[in-house]
Amino acid sequence: MIISHSADCRLSAHICQRMKEAASSYVSIEELQKAVGKRLSLCTGFQDARVASGVLTALMAITAAAATNGDIYRLSLLPENANGAWIASFLPNEYDRIFRFAGVGVYHAKEGESIEGASAVVLSGSSTAMPFFHIPAIIIADKDIVPEQILKYKSQADALIISSDTFRGPERTAVILCTEALAGMLDCVLAPRHGIGRSFKIGKEEIVGACYAMTDWMQEAEDGAD
Predict the structure, then answer these.
(1) Which of 50, 99, 175, 202 is the most buried (most CB within 10 A)?
(2) What is the second-level CATH architecture of the domain 13-225?
(3) If we measure between CA atoms, which residue out of 118, 105, 51 comes closest to residue 78?
């Protein structure tokens, strides 16, 4: 039996079995992430998806990808050479260290304020500042988000980060629902190569477990609606 740090996040026998099967398989992590992305896109309506080792890792990966446009060489230079890239944030100050870890500056914007020149804008799911930006918009979903709300964010966000606590997935995982373009850039960060994302590697077992937990969560909501 696998029990998360959160009391309400015990993994189902079905998820445990899928993770056990993944543990005995050989697979390219990059190819697995792409396959999982296709599967999650079918049940969520987003173009693509990736699995990261937690919400903060997901946020760091998207920040680095957006700041470098997914260029592998530029990523290899982070955090020392971000070339003045900065993020507009509507999040609490506690998140600032994540942006700075990627070598990216952070500016705490106010609602209605111009953020021209930023590499991306980051908001919480409950934020009232939800305009249509001309830069990547990253939303961290509230923990009490329900599947029916996901489609609402599809037209507002280039990336929606959902913690495993929400969909009862493996500990230390998060799902990034995103555009195809952003997923391609994330592959340069999340793939097991040298660079800023090296210390945030995720195993095939967690990727598979998060995928099945997310699809089960979505299916339960659909069955309940019927």
Answers:
(1) 175
(2) 3-Layer(aba) Sandwich (3.40)
(3) 105
